[in-house]
Each structure stands twice: as C-alpha cells, then as structure tokens.
Amino acid sequence: MPEKTAGVTAGALLAALPDTVVVADSRGRVTYVNPAVTRLLGYEPAELLGRDLAEIMPPRFRTGHGEHITRFLTTGQGELVGNTTQLPAVHVSGHEVSIDVTLARVEPFPGAPAEESSVVGVLRDASTTILLERQLQVSRYLAATLRVTAALTEARDADVAFRQLLPTLCTELDWDAALLWQADGERGRLVHAGTWTAPDGDVPALAADATGRRFRRGEGLPGQAWLQRAPVVVDDLASDPRVVRADAVRADRLSTGVAFPVLRGDTVLAVCELFSTESRPVPAELLEVLAHAGRQIGQFLDRLRAESDVRGLADTLQRSLLPSHLPTIPGIGLAARYRAGGETALVGGDTYDVTPLPDGRWMVLIADVCGTGAEAAAVTAVTRHTARAAAATGSPAEILGAVNTALLQQRDDGPLRFVTACCLVLEPAGSGHHACLSVAGHPLPVLRCPDGATEEVGVPGRPLGIDAEVRFEQTHLELSAGSTLVLYTDGVTEARDDAGRQFGEDALLRVVAGAPLDAEATVGAVAAAVEDQLAGSRHEPDDLAVLALTVPR
What we know:
The chain is an alpha+beta fold. It has three domains: 4-125, PAS domain (Beta-Lactamase), CATH 3.30.450.20; 135-312, Beta-Lactamase; 321-550, 4-Layer Sandwich (Phosphatase 2c, domain 1), CATH 3.60.40.10. 35% of the residues lie in helices and 26% in strands. The protein has a six-stranded antiparallel beta sheet with strand order 10-9-8-13-12-11. Strands 4-3-7-6-5 form a five-stranded antiparallel beta sheet. A five-stranded antiparallel beta sheet has the order 14-23-22-19-20. Strand 8 (177-184) and strand 9 (189-197) form a beta hairpin. The radius of gyration is 40 Å and the shape is elongated.
C-alpha cells in the first residue's frame, strides 16, 4: 500500500478507523491489526501480531464443523468472501462478543510468490445490530399477539374463540402446525381440542395420534407446559426424550416444537403447541411473548366463559318471565313472538301471558317494564304474578289496579321502574268472543275487522307504578269471525332504520291489514317487517313482543 495519501500515512488512516482492521498472511498469521481491536476485544495490537487469527474464535469454531469458518477467516477462501457474516469472537477477558466480519483476499503482485497473498478482515461490534434486530422481532411478536387478541374479541363464546385461536396464532407467528389441548380438571388430563396446519402443510400422523390422546401433568410437551405453567421448547423433536409422539413427528418431518399454557391466574385452561418442519431458533423474547400471550388469552377466555354463563342465566331468567307455551283457547287462534333487544340488554323488560280463569274466561296480558337487567326482571315477575292472582275475580281495570298497588309497595330508593301494560279478558259470545280491554300507558292494540278495516282500540291510561290514585278505563270489543287483534310492545313501532326513522303505527296497521287470517302468519309478518326496518341500522333495537288473536271464519 502507498506510504502516504495526501500527506497522511496509510497507517495513520487505519489507526483512526473506528472498525477493527486485521491483516493475516496466507497461513492465517496476523501481520497487522489497528488499535480499534482494543475497544472491540480488549487486546493490545502487539498482543495479536504473529498469532493465528483463529485464536480469537471460540474453541468450537476451531475444530469439527467449524473448520470451514476458520478456514474462511484465515485464508479468505470460500463463498463468504466479500460478504458480511455475523460470528462470535472471544474477548481477552474470556466472554464472547458478537461481531460482523467482512473479509477480502488480497492477491500478491504479479510475479510475487503466492505465499505473499493476504487476507484483510474488517470486524465490527454487532451487539447494537443484534439488539435492534431483537427489538424488531419482539415488536413483531407483540403485534402478532395483539392481532390474535383482536381476532378473539370477535368471538361470542369461548368455544368459538378456541377455534379461532390456532389459525390466527400460527399464521401471525409463522408456524407450520398447531395443536390445542384443553384441561379437564376433574380427570387431571389434557384432551385434544383442535389441530391446524398451514395451507401448504399437513401433519397427518400427528393429527391421527391426537385422536384419543390424553396427557397427564409432566407428560410430553403439553404436559411439561402444564406442569411448569411456562413455555417449553424442544429443539429436536425426533430425539428429545420428553416427546412421547416421536414416531408421529418423524413421520411428519417436524423439527422444532414449543408449547405454552393458557392461564387464568395459576390455573391452566389449555396448552397450545406450535410446530415447525424446519429447525428454527426459539429466542427467549418469543418465549416471554408467548407466556404473556397465554396469560392474556386466558383472561380473555375466562371473561368469555363468564359472560357466556351470565347469558345462560339471563336466558333462563328471561324464559321464566314468558310462558313456556301458549294454551289453546277454543275458537281462537293464538300466536306470540318475542325477541330480546340489543347486545347490552341481557334480560329484557317485555313479557306476555295467557291464563285460563276458573269461570271459562281467559286473561291476556302484555307488558313492558322500564329498563333492563335483574331489577327490571324482578319488576316483570311482580307484574306477571300479581296479574295472574288478581285475574281470578277481577276485571281488566281491577287487574291493572292490583299490579299498580303491588309495584308501589315494592318501590325502593332505586330508579323508578314504571310499567306499561295492556290487559284483556276474553269470554265466548255466540260465534265469536267478547273482550274487555284496559290500557296502562301501553301502545294501543290493533284490531282488524272482518271487512279488512284496521284500527287502534282502547283508551290510553297512565303507566303502572307511579300514582296510587290512577284509574283505568275499560273498552268492550266484539271479536267476530274473521277478526284479528294484535297486542305489541313499543319495540315494534319504535324500531329505527339507519337514518333514525321509526317504524310507526301506520306501518303496523298496513302490515296487520295485509296479513292472512292466521295468528302465526300475523306475528311473523310483523316481526319480519320490523327486521327489515332494522336491517343495516346503527341503532340498537329494543325488546319486541307481539301477540295475535284471530277468530276464524
């Protein structure tokens, strides 16, 4: 190399470089090293002169499978020449340092002996690069688990969430196959709950083995994760003694496996297994992310299960507030339709009832309690049972009066829970039926006459549970052959489309007028018209109850 470059010696230039520059002869002996080696590996330059360059490598790279790397470093021969390679080096204190190595072979001048060729290596501290790469990888892992959690939030219950867990997890973290094992706490076993494979992959042997397979704590990869309550890695599935399905993993050519528990506190809800057909590193950062994801998923699934249990209890409570079936009234067609409101209402406030009376009459009641939830359900129960008790001897007005008194006696310091209701008492009259009707703040029933004319009937009154002095008027109707009477709650007429327009009474009158003379067809037509109104609407629907009585011709 030239002695001077623009008045500066080449040695001074090399000495000023922040990267370590090492020159070795054709035998791999160090002939030059700049001062930067002290910052990188702790050696003084003079300590390395004349020594084999391979001495800065860990012992495992000096013999066996590492010989080709040593040969590359000392001779500059091989396909890695000219490329940057990340390798470990040994610091003077004995610990390993990750370095980026770039080598070039310097051929001798023409006519010079071949042994005068040299290898020039540039060594750079790779720790910062490795840290950044790990941080990037961790951010990818975290982003993947966030997408998994986001996908699970769309599941309505834990079973659906479990089915969505495997494909989302594997796709986002780039594994070839996954198995899910759910904990059977009563029997102390993990049972197979699902298998997923990448679109271009298949694990038939592993999938077949999973059928009927049970794992105890500590048994196999899933059992180890269950026992330790932490992720477990197997780098070589075919040879690791912990793997009890070695034949299956060999048949499917699986190399690396990792299992992590899905935890609720210290309780293992499930264990997820991930498999790769290629040998792949499982860094500590990934294990930490999987452990965290297992806890998050466990909390989420536990909440889903709790919500599912609450919905089940709410459904049971809701059914208790409605008749299990409608009775048969001689000479009357009878049908009802109920639909709970939006997702936020677990128990609605709508109810209806049809009850035979001792003297051959029938009481028909429909009511709507202000609010939803357990308190509204309690008010609904009081309304329904009081009406039944009072119906034995009372008129519709007296029945509503009894309910009003009961609600006022039940009132506490909580929010006002008023009730709107419509009560009807039927009795046979010739070829039809006579009806006596009272209304307490409720939407007026719709009557379709035999000639097809449709109108609202009854006199509006004040809601129940507000005023002790309220009185209710009675309206008498003759339901002759060919008539239809429809009782409903405001979830019908107040149903709003996306623009906020309500369904309204006029639309209800038209639907009833156009329905066949059949109770089931009538309630079906009303419910379908309301669903059309709500289709695509951003507005949450209210509870809906419809009860139709028809007198056949």
